[in-house]
Amino acid sequence: MALVVQKYGGSSVADAESIKRVARRIIETKKAGNDVVVAVSAMGDTTDELLDLANEVSPLPPPRELDMLLTAGERISMALLAMAIADQGHSVRSFTGSQAGVITDESHGKAKIIDVTPGRILDAIAKGHIVIVAGFQGVSKETKEITTLGRGGSDTTAVALAAAMQASVCEIYTDVDGVFTADPRIVPKARKVDRITNEEMLELAASGSKVLHLRSVEYARRFNIPIHVRSSFSHKEGTFVTDQPAPEGESVEAPIIAGVAHDRSEAKITVVGVPDRTGMAATIFAAIAEAGINIDMIVQNVSATETGLTDISFTLPKTEGPAAMQALHNIQDEVGFASLQFDDQIGKLSLVGAGMRSNPGVSATFFKAIADVGVNVEMISTSEIRISVVTRDDRLDDAVLAVHSAFGLDADEAAVVYGGTGR
Amino acid sequence: MALVVQKYGGSSVADAESIKRVARRIIETKKAGNDVVVAVSAMGDTTDELLDLANEVSPLPPPRELDMLLTAGERISMALLAMAIADQGHSVRSFTGSQAGVITDESHGKAKIIDVTPGRILDAIAKGHIVIVAGFQGVSKETKEITTLGRGGSDTTAVALAAAMQASVCEIYTDVDGVFTADPRIVPKARKVDRITNEEMLELAASGSKVLHLRSVEYARRFNIPIHVRSSFSHKEGTFVTDQPAPEGESVEAPIIAGVAHDRSEAKITVVGVPDRTGMAATIFAAIAEAGINIDMIVQNVSATETGLTDISFTLPKTEGPAAMQALHNIQDEVGFASLQFDDQIGKLSLVGAGMRSNPGVSATFFKAIADVGVNVEMISTSEIRISVVTRDDRLDDAVLAVHSAFGLDADEAAVVYGGTGR
C-alpha cells in the first residue's frame, strides 16, 4: 500500500464547504488504495485574526505565548477536517504537531524541524485511520515547548512527514494549478510547468515565488521526496518537483528556462561616500550581521580616483530596514561614510533555469528584453542557474512580461487563478 | 509564600479589555506576596462559535475530534491572558491542560479528573512565573488523548489544581458578587451569602444554582479546599464555601437557610396505568438506567383499589426526554402500562439550609408560603438539608419570591448583576 502525504493550505479550508470538499478529496485518495496523512493549515484568515487579538493585548507579545496562541488555528482546522471525513463514514484521527512527533529546535516563531517521530501516526495508519496533522507547529526537543515553523511552515510539515515515513509522494494542494513560468497575476499567459528540478525550485522559491516555501524544498531535496504541487480546486495534474528522471515515454529534454520569479518584499540601502580602504565593507556587513539581518544582493561602485570614496548598496527584506539603518548609524563615525539612503520602491526579477549552464546566449537575450521595454537595471547578481536584477518597483511588471515573452514561455491562453494563498 | 489559585470564566475574559483587566487583577495578587496559578475559560462565546463550526461540517462529530476542537478555545484565552500579563512587566507561562498535568479518564466531552501531576507548574512557580492554565481540559491517562471536562469544567480544573498543590484558597471569579440566597434575576432582593458550608453548596448546585459547578464543590469538599466565589468586576469579598470555622470575631451562628435554588432544565415523564405488581417500578427504572439517563425526583401515586393500576412520575433533564420516552416505549408490552405523558413545562424550587435539621418548623413555613401565592405543588422530594417541589414553569418565579421572603432572606436593596455567565 502506498503512503501519500497531502498538504492543504488555508484557502483550501477557508470555510465549512471548503473543508467538506477537501474531505471528499482525501477520501478519494484513501479509496484509491493509499494510506493518507494530511498536513493542514489554519482556516483562511484565522492566523491573522489571532495576531490581531494578540496585538490588542500586547504590542510585543512573548514569542512562546504567541506560538501557543497561533497553534490554536491548526487545532481548529484539523479537528473540523477530521469531523468532515468521519461524517462521510471514514475513520480518522487528528494529531497536533506535538502528538505527531514533529520535534523542533527552541526558536519560537521560526523553529526548524530537527526530527520527526511519527509513532502515533503509524499506529493510527496501521488501524486503518486517515490521519490529519496540524501543519506549521511542533514541540521543542529540550524544553517541550510548543513551537511554530514560521511562514510556509505547513509545506515543511508535510515534506518532513513524507520523509520520516518514506511516503511515495508529497502532494502540496494550493489555489493554483502548479508551478508557473511566472506569476499569472502579472503574466496572464504564464504556463504551468509539468516537471521542475529541486535546484530550480529552490532558486525560484528564494527569488520570490510563493507557491512552495523555500525550506520545504530544501527538505525535499535532502531526503529525495518528490513533491507534486497541484490545485485543490481541480483534478488536473500539477507540477512535479523532483530530481528523479521523467517516466518513460515522456520527453526527457529539459527546457532551458524554468521560470521568471519576481519579488517586491525587498528594499535597498546605499551607504554613500565610504572611504575606499581595506576592511570598510567587512565592518559594514559585520554590523548588519550582528543585528541578525539577512542581506541579499550587494553592489560596490568602482571608487572615484579623485575622491577615494565609494558607494556600497545592498538589498534586504523591507521589514528589516529600520533595524539595518540603526545598525549602520551606530558605525558611521568608525567607518566615516557620508550618508545613508533607504529605498523601498524597488523590485527584483529573477530568471531561473538549469539549462543556463550550457546555453551561453541566455544573458544577452535577458538584458536585451529588459532594455527593449526601457527598464533600467540598478543591480545585478547571478548564480549558475539564475540571473537577478533590481529595477524600479513600478517598472517590474513590464520587465517580467518582456523576459517571459523573450524566452518563448508565453502560452496560447491565459492561466486560471482561483483565490488567495494560505500559509 | 501562600499559593492562590484563581479561576476566571468566559465572561471575565470576553475581549481584549477584559483580558487586560483580569491581568491587572492577577498581578495585584502576585504583588501582594502570593504565588498565583490561574485557570481560565474560553473567551465569551468562543465555545459556542466552535460548536457552530462543528455542526456545519458534521451533525454528529466524533467526541475525540470535538474535544480537540473545543480545547482551542482555552488555548487562545490563556495565551492572550499571558501576553497581557507579560505586557505589564511580569513573567508568566501558560500551560494547556495536558502540559499542566490534568490527567482524566477516557470519556471525551465529560471526562473526570483522576490525577493532577503539576510538575511543570511547580517548576514555573519556583522560577517566579505567574502560571496560567487552560481550564476545562485534560489528557486521558491511558491513551493520552485530549479530553474536556464538560460544562463548568474550568471550576473543577481550578479546584483540582488547588488540591494538588495545597493552595491556601481557590478563588472562583465570576460575574456576580458571590453565592446569593436566590437568583437575583428572579429575586431582586436576594442577599449575598458570606459563608456557606460545602454540604449546602452541593445541594444548591445540584438544585439548579449555576454559580459553582457541582463537581467542583464535590472536589473541594473531598480535599478540604476553601473556595472563595467573588466577582471579577469588583473588589468586594464574595462568598466563602468552606467547612472550616469562621475566623475569630465573626458570628459563629449559622443561618437556618442558605438559599433558594430553582431549575428550569428538567422535564417530567408520567407512566400512566402501571399494573400495581411487584417489580414493575424496578423494570421501568432499569430501562431508563440502561439508556444512560439520570433521573431526579420520583413520585408513585397510591394505587386505586378498584383498578389495581398506579401512575409513576419522574423528572429528568429535558435534553434526555426523547431517549427516555423511546426506552419506555420499548418496554410497554412487557410492563403493560397504558400510556406515557411528557411534560416540559415544569420548574423546580429547592430550599437549602443545614439549619433545617434542628428547626422543625421549616416545612410548614415553606408550604404555607407557596400555598399563599396560589401555586400548586406537583411533586415533592427532601433530603436532610433540602426540600424540593415541582410547580408549573410559569408559576415558579412567584413561588421562589414567596419562599425567599417567608424565610426573611430579603435584603433592603436590590443586588447588582453584571452580565452573562461563562463555563
Automatic annotation (TrEMBL), chains A, B:
InterPro entries: AceGlu_kinase-like_sf, ACT-like_dom_sf, ACT_Aspartokinase, ACT_dom, AKii-LysC-BS, Asp/Glu/Uridylate_kinase, Asp_kin_monofn, Asp_kinase. NCBIfam families: asp_kin_monofn, asp_kinases, PRK06635.1-1, PRK06635.1-2, PRK06635.1-4. CDD domains: AAK_AKii-LysC-BS (cd04261), ACT_AKii-LysC-BS-like_1 (cd04913), ACT_AKii-LysC-BS-like_2 (cd04936). It comes from Nostocoides veronense. Residues 269-345, 351-423 form the ACT domain. It comes from the Bacteria. Its EC number is 2.7.2.4. This is Aspartokinase. GO terms for molecular function: kinase activity. Catalyzes the phosphorylation of the beta-carboxyl group of aspartic acid with ATP to yield 4-phospho-L-aspartate, which is involved in the branched biosynthetic pathway leading to the biosynthesis of amino acids lysine, threonine, isoleucine and methionine.
